[in-house]
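User: quick one, fold this
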Amino acid sequence: MVIDAVPCELLTAPGPESGSNALSFVIQVRRQLGLCRLVGALDAVLDSNARVAPFRILLQVPGSQVYSAIACGELLNGSEVYWAIAIGATAEEINQHWEWLEQNLLHTLSVFDNKEDIVSFVKGKVKALIAEETSSKLAEQEEDPEKFREALVKFESRFNFPEAEKLITYYSCCCWKGKVPRQGWLYLSINHLCFYSFFLGKELKLIIPWVEVQKLERTSNVFMTDTVRVTTANKERDFSTFLNIAEAFRIMEQLADVTLRRLLDNEIFELDPGLQDPTQITKRDLEARAQNELFRAFFRLPRKEKLHEVMDCSLWTPFSRCHTAGTMYTSDSYICFASKENGCCTVIIPLREVISIEKMEDTSLLPNPIIVSIRSKTAFQFIELKDRDTLVENLLQRFKEVNSNFPFPLVVEFLICEMLLFTSSHMRTGKQKHELVFWFVFFFNVCSCSQSREQIKESLWDDHFVEYGRTVCMFRTEKIRKLVAMGIPESLRGKLWLLFSDAQTDLASHPGYYVHLVEASMGRCCMAREEIERDLHRSLPEHPAFQSETGIAALRRVLTAYAHRNPKIGYCQSMNILTSVLLLYAKEEEAFWLLVAVCERMLPDYFNHRVIGAQVDQSVFEELIKEQLPELAEHMKDLTALASISLSWFLTLFLSIMPLESAVNVVDCFFYDGIKAIFQLGLAILEANAVDLCNSKDDGQALMILSRFLEHVKNEESPLPPIGNHHAFFSDDQEPSPVTEIANLIHDSYEKFGDHSVEQIEHMRYKHRIRVLQSHEDTTKQNVLRVVIPDVSFLPEDLEELYDLFKREHLLRCYWAGGSAVPERHDPSRPYAEQYRIDAQQFASLFRLLSPWTCGEHTELLAHRTFRLLDDNMDQLIEFKALASCLDVMYNGEMNEKIKLLYKLHIPPALTENERDSQSPLKNPLLSTSRPLVIGKSNGDAVDYQKQLKQMLKDLAKEKDTKTEKELPKMSQKEFIQFCKTLYSMFHEDPEENDLYQAIATVTTLLLQIGEVGQRSLSLGSGSDEFTEDLQPEASASEQDAVFTDTVKSPHKDSQPSPVTEGDWTVSFEHILASLLTEQSLVNFFEKPLELKPKLENAKLNQYSLRTNGMSCQSRSEHAKPNMQ
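Assistant:
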């Protein structure tokens, strides 16, 4: 609001100096007039935030016509700007503020030459104080331990998770159900997002596993301006009215990222040491991880760097002749500085470069100063450091550690003539020599006319080095960014790439490391080596440097050495193109460390078989297109086509699709600004072709438009000879295309799309990493289902739900299994069908939920037998296809298939030796062999089972000669007893229970007699006995002998050896099947239709409760398993 509306008095106090350029602080007092009282009353009633304080201290800038505010700056008299520095309710309070200004600020201002510097300094100082006060208030709001313990008890009682499910933090918020908010508590644990509400007598519980989250974003709706939306495969949930929504979202973002990458992307993901054990993760750990990752991304430092101190301070910047307000960051091996004003100044100081760290005398002009001296005879002065003594002590300790690990002095040479040199080494003999490639001579002979332009650039850079420094510790400002955008001179390119990427520090810190890698990797045969050899001659084949063995040999050594250094990455296509260009501007060892910097720091997770990092950035690029180029995004509804086209832009940094002399300018920007440079250049390219892309008819035409445009991006100022692009998609010039100057394209990219900060890009990466990982999971699922669907009779939607249950069971074990080796079960590098596997305990849980063969207490035993049967390779893990095939037999198989499965479950390997040793059921009267074989039925008819037995033996004898399937091993009496026990358990509580018991008793009696017939025939040494003589009229002795002889004495040559000895009681699968077929009630039981859908619905509801209820007694059940019957 304009202050003129409220009458005030200004009490002017003189500034630190007088004169036309003087600035002054003034105390403003609100006059207590009648009108003022009315306005004050209205302010108090209508808007408490709009009230003007009775006393204010303003910083006056005479003659200024610009309006800009620090906290609540307001425009006075339409011409002058006053900065509101402090406010007070009483004269005493405002006087205290004034005294602070006199003691801490007014004397400091005398060192400045002009009013702009004073305004900048005061502005930075006030903002720093505001930030410090905000941080202090947040620190005071840390959870009360007593309240947290109370929340933990409620969390455990409400959700019944095992103790291993650690609660991280909790928030009061609303969960929106349609248009109705439900007030409750949001609990964030290591594996789940949970919400609980009890409102108007209704209880609401939500459990959302982090691994099922597909999108996590801050959004708004018609009711709330700021909400957190959590999206899963089937549902969207909105949470709002957080006390601190920024903090809540940051913790949710970290938990989702850590859990998803830990469980779904363990191929390359390495957790911070503090996050290795999920049960030890705390809220503070997650906040530290977020700060660490942002710190490493901003300064592009190695992943191992851990942030230790973050302090507000000011750094003396000689190019501006003043102290620049900013923040100091210290880590294991670096001291970094970033100005509060974005892009003003950034400094990276490796401790490897430091000579000394000293405290200076504390004065009013230089409060709490320290001096950091480096090897290039430069010193950095930091002031206004709080807790300076502790900081210096910690820095000196880390400085000693760094120098004890790497005692070799760092020498940063700046030799212009090192351009285009390859180090051609005979590594095994230790001899090295520098050979000049033929292209070096070709370059100077052809392009001498362009040297004047290069000399101008070199002169500009030399001037810049004098003022800003020429080592890795140089002041990085907007001026150097402009020089980079113009294109680095050819003679300086290699060295500046080393400095901007900090590969120079790695090079100096690891003397002899590259030579050792080359020696260790030479002569080794591996898949990476084969792929490297295949791509060597595809790397810039049009370039003279790689048309001889000199360049090819150097490229081979660098790629092979890196594959040996990092076997997780090994070698990926596009690394050869990038390395080729690096070798053009750096020596071999330097090119190796540049490659390390790109693969492990600047493009993390790009170079692996799933290229997760590249896909994440492609997804970020799509969002930037929608944000920056909405018309193009609207025309091209599906941006995946653009993403597939632009993938090579990110993987090869435009080297594969632009002329080399232009693409190296892009690489210049990449080494200085990181991936941000590729994002903004990609947007500039799309904007330049937006009209043609909107008029394109299909993806192919869009691809041709972009390819032709990129082929005609030229660099007229380059001294390099024009070299054709072998990797371009199209090379036809049927239609002349306009030429685009690379410098103009880069300039446009910075001007129009350069406003995204590193922090914004990192947040976008968090969001889209979730989407990319879930997309990979969907791809895995679809490929597994595509393989399994032809082999089973389940509906596709039922099979999909079954897969989800299988995967969730795997993940439940990962959540709370403590020391279980997750990679043994989930390996993204394996074929799709083998990525998820479960163990015996997990299978038993699913068996109880899904199997139609419920056997009461016998179910657990049957589940473990089924697992042993399905575990073909005996690695104690099975895949989804095995589970689906087994359930398909139970639900959809023919009767003979179901009986065969049951039969296999009661012979080795499914049945163990311990399980055979059980009390014989022959004592049960139902199984007595003395019962008559003629049974009377309820309708008065009688069935002669001796006749049925004779007919069965005849049929088996006839089928024996025509069978081609491998015969099953014979079942011993103990195994048969277990088989009978399973059948009795299966019939329990069936509606036809009595009929089934009667039928199975009859069949069991028949089978016992068959087994005794075979046993007696073997013991007598002949194929007939008293029993067979009784059957002679219906079946000849020779037929029976053939059956029993084949059954007991001579198993099929391809079958497994029978465990029984000669003369033992045995019965075959054919005997059992034929006997069961004689009873209609048994046939009806095994052939009745079964539905999987109800079991799936029940399993989705009870899978969590079954697992959580069983975890508490897991140890007891594991000890009891060997004794289960």
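User: anything notable?
Assistant: The chain has a mean pLDDT of 78.
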